[in-house]
């Protein structure tokens, strides 16, 4: 069985300022880098065979901190990107209450399909191994929704730099 250590990126400037980052790169705060270092320290003695991250800066930077002591490359993939919020991207989250969603927001099914593709890739490429994957709050939620075969609203939100283990 393949172990997938699913991680949410560390805190970002956008998180602090309540900005809907979506597929914008994002930038870790000092706290976000500290959170990533905490995950790194927890996983130090863990045998890890591969590191993957969303290709967005906030996830790549988090994963690089975690992977550093292992001396391994961080593979990036758009499959782990955060939800594409379309025209809502970059907006102040409290201002979005009661707004009509634009047509260019990525659907839950589209996110779940990316999650399926990523988990299939990990199962295929890393059978019986352990993989760290640094993603984002909503795509990680979609991955768990697919894994547990539950609706997204039944999956608890991950905090910044939280790790959850999925046995694929």
Secondary-structure element string:
EHHEHEHEHE
| Largest beta sheet: strand ordering | 3-2-4-1-5
Supply the number of helical segments. Answer: 5
Largest sheet: 5 strands, mixed
What's the gyration radius in Å? 15 Å
pLDDT < 50 runs, ≥5 residues:
none
Which strand-content bin applies to the residues?
15-25%
Distance between the termini: 6 Å
What structural category arises from helix and sheet content? alpha/beta
Counting DSSP E segments of at least 2 residues, the number of strands comes to 5
Shape: globular
Overall helicity? 25-40%
Mean pLDDT level:
98
Summarize this entry quickly.
This protein has 168 residues and is an alpha/beta fold. The chain has five helices and five strands.
Layout: helices, strands, pairs:
Blueprint: E1 3-8, H1 13-16, H2 30-42, E2 50-54, H3 57-67, E3 74-77, H4 108-125, E4 130-135, H5 137-148, E5 163-167
Parallel strand pairs: 1-4, 2-3, 2-4
Antiparallel strand pairs: 1-5
Helix pairs in contact: 2-3, 4-5
């Amino acid at each position: 069985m393949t172990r997938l250590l699913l991680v949410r990126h560390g805190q970002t400037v956008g998180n602090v300022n309540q900005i809907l980052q979506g597929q914008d790169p994002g930038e870790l705060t000092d706290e976000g880098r500290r959170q990533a270092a905490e995950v790194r320290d927890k996983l130090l003695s863990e045998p890890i065979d591969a590191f993957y991250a969303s290709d967005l800066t906030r996830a790549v930077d988090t994963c690089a901190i975690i992977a550093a002591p292992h001396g391994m490359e961080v593979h990036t993939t758009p499959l782990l990107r955060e939800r594409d919020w379309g025209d809502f991207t970059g907006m102040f989250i409290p201002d979005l209450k009661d707004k009509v969603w634009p047509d260019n927001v990525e659907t839950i099914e589209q996110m779940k399909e990316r999650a399926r593709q990523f988990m299939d890739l990990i199962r295929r490429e890393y059978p019986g191994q352990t993989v760290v994957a640094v993603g984002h709050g909503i795509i990680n939620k979609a991955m768990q929704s697919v894994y547990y075969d539950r609706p997204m609203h039944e999956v608890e939100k991950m905090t910044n730099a939280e790790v959850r283990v999925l046995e694929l």
